[in-house]
C-alpha cells in the first residue's frame, strides 16, 4: 500500500531556477551531438527533447507524485531511455563533458521526485527499456535489470516456481533499481530481512563509465549500494538476487477495528505483541479517519494487515498465543499462493489476473507528502499519545491522511546494523509512515496539508527514536535537510544523513570519496565525498 501514486516538495527555490537554463540551447545541442558521436548505434531512437511530440508522455509516464507534475516543475533538457549499457555510458560521458546533472529513474517512486527533477540543468536516464528478468530456478537466483518493476520481478519468478520468491516491497510499479538501492523492506522482512540483504552481485556503471561487478568494484562499494540510496555511486544496471523459499500456501488477512471497537487499546496492545509474533508473520496497521454509517459522523479505523507464511490453522494458533485481543477468526483469513498475495496486498480485487503485475501504467496520480519515524522497542507509544494522533487526524477530512505502523523484529533483529547501510535493525519496534494526499495542484491546499503533516511529525517527537531521530531513505523527506548542489558540504549532508544511516553515514562518505571524488552523481540527498568537506 506504499504505492502512494494511487497514492511527492513545495520547494520555493525550484521557481528561482526553473527558467534560468531554458534560454540557452547550447548545452542541449552539444549534449545531443556528443551522444551521437559517442554512440550512433540506434541511440537516436531513445532520445527525447521538448520538441518531440512524445517528450511529455515519456516524462510523465513514471511520475508518481502530482506535486512534481506541474508547469513550474523543472524539466529535463533531454530524456534518454537506453536500450543497452553503451547508451548509459554515452549519457554519463556527455553529461560530464557539458556540465549537466544526471537523474536516474527506474520506477519514478522517489517521494521527493529526485529521480526526475533537478534545480540545475539536467538529463534523465530512464531505465524503462532495461527491465529483463532472468530466473535460474536450479540455483535459486535471478538477474534483474534495474528498470524492472517489483511486479515484473515477482511475476517472472512465479512463472518458474510457486515456492520461490523475493522479499521486497508491496507496490508492483516500484522500480527495482531505486528500491533495492535504499534497502527495500516488504511483507517478508521479519522472515528474510530486506531486499538488499539478498543481493549477491551487481552490474554498475561508475562516473568513469566503467562496468563494474562485485569482484571488480570491491566490497566497500558493494556494501554502499545495498542501502545507501540511489543516484549516488553510479548507475545500477542489474542486480543478482538470491531467491527465498515460500510455502505453497500462505495466509492473509485484513481486520478492521474502530474506536467504538476499542481500537486505541488494541493498537497499544499490538506493540507488546510484536515481540511474541512468529517470524513467519508480517504485521502492519493502517490508521485513518473514515465516515461511518451514521450521517455526519466519523471514526478512526485501525486496519490490521498481515501475511503469514503458512496455513490458516497454524496462524490462528499463533495469534491466540501472541495477540488474542484482536479476536482473529478463521473467517477473517484467506489462504492463497505467495504470488497471489502480491496482487492482494497491492489492493486489486480477488481473482484479478496475475498479469496485472506487469502493468507499469501509473493510473490516477495524486499529490502527497510523506514522512517516517521509528519507535524504540523499549518505549512503545502510550495510549494518550495515540489519542493525540486521532485528534490530529480529525483535523482533516476523512481518508485524506493515513499512518502505517509496520512491525519490525524477527530476522531484522538478527542482522547487524552495519551489514548494509540500512541501520534500522535490532532495537526498533516498528516503523511509522505518515502520509497526506490531495487530488489537485492547488498550492494553497498543498501548503495546508504539508503544514499539517509537519505539525503531526513535531507532535510525535517525544514518542520516537532520538539522537538521531531515524528515517527511511526509500521514503525520502527533504524536510530533514538538503545538500547545496553547487557546493555540497559534509556538515550539511550529515544533518539528514545520520537520520537515514546513523553511524554508517561516515563509511558511505569514505566510499563516495573513492569512487566519485568529483561528486558527479549527486542530488539534494546524496552522499558527498570528502572533497566536499
Automatic annotation (TrEMBL):
Cofactor(s) listed: FAD
**What processes does the entry annotate via GO biological process terms?**
cannabinoid biosynthetic process
Instruction: Return the protein name.
Output: FAD-binding PCMH-type domain-containing protein
Keyword Glycoprotein on entry: yes
> Which species is listed as the source?
Populus tomentosa
Q: What PANTHER family does UniProt report for this protein, alphabetically?
A: OS08G0158400 PROTEIN (PTHR32448)
Keyword vocabulary terms for this entry:
Disulfide bond, FAD, Flavoprotein, Glycoprotein, Signal
- Renumbered to this chain, the signal peptide range is 1-25
Residues covered by the FAD-binding PCMH-type domain: 72-246
Q: Name one GO molecular function term.
A: oxidoreductase activity
Tell me where on the tree of life, at the top rank, the source sits. Eukaryota
Protein family per UniProt: Belongs to the oxygen-dependent FAD-linked oxidoreductase family.
